[in-house]
Structure prediction request, 172 residues.
Amino acid sequence: MTEQASTGAQLPDWANRPEGGGKKRGVGRERSLSARLSDFLITGGVTVAFIYIAHNLLRWEVPYLRPSFRDCLWAIDLSLIASFVGSAMRLVYGRPWFRHFTEAAQGLITINAVYTFYRVYPLDLPPAYSDDLARLILVIIMAATGLAVVVSAVMALVSLVRDFGDTAYAAS
Prediction:
C-alpha cells in the first residue's frame, strides 16, 4: 500500500501502476526457457508413466475393467503422446499464442480419447455403482474439455493479435 485516497484509506500498489502494471502478464506473457524445460520434463515423465500404466491395467487384472479396454488404448496413447509433443514444441517455440494453440489442439485430441472410452465403455461396474453415472461423468469431462478448448483458442487468437500488434507498433 502506498498512496492514500481522499477517504484516508490506503490504495493497493497495483492501483498506482500505469495500465498493465509495466509487466507482461496473463495472455501476453511468454514463459521462460527454464519454465518450458521443466514443463517438458514433467510432461515427459508423466506421459511415460501413464502409457506404462494404461498398457498394463489388463495384465494387472484391475477389477471392473473389461478386455475391450484394448480398443481404447490407441486413443489414450494418442492423447498422451500429443501432450508430450505439444510440450516439446512449446519448449522450442514459446510464444503465448502458440502455447494456447497447442493446448487447444491437445484438448481436441483428449476429447477424442474420452469419447472413444465413452463409446467402447470398457467398464463392468458392480450394481452398487451406476453405469449411467459413470457415463455422465465422461460426458461432463468432454464438455469441460470442450470449454477449455474454446478458451484456449480464444486466448491463442488474443495473444496472436497482441503479438502482431506489438510487432506492428515496434516497426513503426
